[in-house]
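ugh ok so i messed up the first submission bc i forgot one of the chains. this is the corrected input, ALL of the components this time, i swear. 962 residues overall. if the numbers dont match what u have on ur side tell me asap before i send this to the collaborators (the ones from the other lab, u know who)
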Amino acid sequence: MPSELDTRLFDPGRINLLIGILLFLAFLIINMLRARAGHSFFIRPLAGLQALDEAIGRATEMGRPILYMPGLGDMSEVGTLASITIMTRVARKVAELGCDLEVPCYDPMVMAIMDGVARQAYREVGREHDYKVGSIYYVSAQQFAYVAAVTGMMLRDRPAANIYMGSFYAESLFLAETGNLTGAIQIAGCDKVTQLPFFVCACDYTLLGEELFAAGAYIGREPVQLATIAAQDWAKALAIAVMLIVLLLTAFGHPELRRILQVS
Amino acid sequence: MYLGPILLTFVVGATLIALYFIPHHQAQEINSELLLWATIVYAFALILGSVSLWSVHAQRIRQRISGWPFSLVTLFALLGTTFMGVAWGIGEESPLGRFYSMVNSPLASTMFALLAFFIASAAFRAFRARNVEATLLLVTAIVMMIGRVSVGEFIWRGFPGLTEWLLDVPNLAAKRAIAIGVGLGAVSTALKIILGIERGYLGRTR
Amino acid sequence: MTWADRLLRLDRRIIFLLVAAGTALPLLMPVNLPISVSPRVEAAYQTIDVLPAGSTVLFSLDYEPDISAELQPMTIAIMRHCFRKNLHVIALTLYPAGPGLVEPAIRVAATKEHKVRNKDYAFLGYKSGFQTVMIGMGESIRQQFPVDFYGTPLDSIPVMRGIRNYGEIALLVNLTASSAADYWIQFAVGRYRKPMVLGATAVMATDYYPYLSSRQLLGLIGGMKGAAEYEKRMDLFGDARRGMDAQSLVHVIVAFLVILGTVALFASGQRGPAPRAEKPQE
Amino acid sequence: MSPVETWIAAFLTLCVFSFLYRDNPFYRFAEHLFVGSAAGYLLAVQYQNVILPNVVLPITTGKPTPQTIVLTLIPLMLGLLMVARVSPRFTGPARWAIAFYVGIYSGIAVPGYMQAQIYAQLSDAVKPFAPGWGAVNSALVLIGLLTVLAYFFFSAPHQGLHGVSARVGIWFLMVAFGASFGYTVMARVSLLISRVQFLLRDWLHLIPMS
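and heres the new structure output, hopefully the right one now
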């Protein structure tokens, strides 16, 4: 047999990756401890988030529903996870004001989770019985079947606000263009760079790439969540520092250090 | 009520991270088995989803909401395709296979093709050089569109080279920064979930 | 109302008609504009071209009918190239609707290059679960695909003899319209150190330039245009090259529309609708 | 495809194209047909490819060993908990299945993203500069990378040097968006070409078959 069965308990070629994960974990924990100790974190404001409340308010006045699309990513996409966190805020606001919410889902797992989030939000504001079963529903895990159903819904039910948060793909232009045609307020957040130009053009506010993840943490303004954004910034700073040091050393004839970034 | 599931997420997540560093063949088998389980859970979630789709349309029919006959179409299609696939399989020549290439394929590809029209209308209506940023976007887009096709070379021989440079230098730089940022965001979110800091997915908001 | 104002209110259906005409006319009356081969496609071509005869190339063809316009011609062209160089081909797909496209594509490529199933190539069929399959194949291909698409056990297929896992694969070719590419890069390239060539839709192509520069990918073929370039390099005349005239014309139309929109906006003296999307205020 | 199938496919193609004029009953019919058949198709595929071989067959065929039974029952239990969510009373138990599922994907994500998107990209970013004129490009890539990273710094206001970098970063971002946009036009047009090819060639026979 050409390749023997592997019996090693650790792959030494990956130790640098392990160190990276542990460092990042340390950044997270240090910043969370700082947050516990009462340190307040500055996070630059994200315009799209401030617009969310406004949009929900307007929908309530107009008596028309809000359409919340959690993207076409599954649970392995971080954009979906961020979308779930943003949904917690949207659902609570919607529950408070008592307007209609529609959440068509592409992934059944996401549907189940979103349903749980919304129920909980209604419970928290003490309106458990106002939650409409079936307002969060699965449409189809086939991309354009989903698009067909949602655009149809946009044209017929005329939601007052369309909120796109999560990982969107080719459907972005289709949905955003149709939404634009119906005159709804549109707020988007997407981590797929390729689709951003379309959201930027057709929506009132757009969270670009990583801002979507930050929004998830930013939204509750809880110190522990904000601390995680700070930890990410530390990691970014570390990455920049490592890059510059290695480049400088290379310029002075010592390219060896580059190996610390190579994983087997 | 939440402690159990949070612990489960922690154990499963931490195990999968550990397995990345353990090349032992038995460890890798455990890895495959766990991934398979996730696939199975998803399959059951899809059953849950289909029930949800069914009840939404059944409700529309029961309450005679405008356009309810169309919901009948959805229900028939759902029931019919599921039955065909479970009874006779999903192969290329099975009834479902033929149905798919006759109905789903043309519908999906035509929906996709509509985007060509939408993109043209968006190009006219929304993509306008309002400020420096928008102008940069537009000029790059036009150079790309013209430079990547035969006509571009006809107009100016330097076009293909220019598009390659745009892709290789500014595009590479921006995409790389985004990849790093998104990567960090992803690692951070995943770690938060594994550590139980982020619990939104369990329906717990605080 | 000035001409510019009127132009700004143009019914979008007129634009739709323009696009429809721009697509149909060149298909009915082709002029076959010349095309040149870009360095990325050339790199992909060379990667395959230098493999010694008898090496095994693994194709993961992860796409469905809706996107096949871009990837199907690519599959045929690259496979024909492998067959011409007497390479062994193993194909699989991670999409349930994939086999309906992949099977005919291999058959066309093999027939044109006079190759025989099981002797020169094998088609393993579909298996669900991206990461599961990719990681599992690192352990054993047979465990993931005990039998091929036609139900033949892998052990009785000559071309599969001695092929256990990625260890015996010389090159991975992934043609996809989805994040399957990311996972192949993470697992086959990252975990198992396999060289990889990517064929992607044009939309995805720009996102993968960083991976080319870092040599995680050895070549990149983007969309129908990329497929047309590959066809050209192979001296073939397939569906991709046939579509290129229409492609040129519609691009010109869209570019013209962008410019027209901007000119009309300035001529009308409006600042237009205030920029609706802006970066976050501070 | 047989002639009848081609006609049905062509009819559905036209139903969808009619949406360009405006929403109408034909489009609505196609839309509802599509939603139902897509959901049913996926369900059938999951049944045939996942549930049947991994859950049903291992315990119903041959003599299953205790190990097989346990390894099959665990995911089956988790799956059933998921389905039980149909009734609102069972949202609690379904959390176990969700917790397992999310745990798996978070666990894969950590080393996966760390390797492919952070280490590999950084390691390439610190490659020695290309010689000659290439060094200018290498420098530009580095500047672009640093400034776009600066734009995505959230815990500092965009002021001073950071403000300038973030602004330059936005320019790089816009060029990248433009490139994506150009390529997207290309992709969508290709798909339209293929649909028109189907209508003109396979259905109307106006252009010769290849």
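quick check: Chain A has two domains: 12-40+222-261, 47-218. that seems consistent at least. The two ends of chain A are 23 Å apart (CA to CA).
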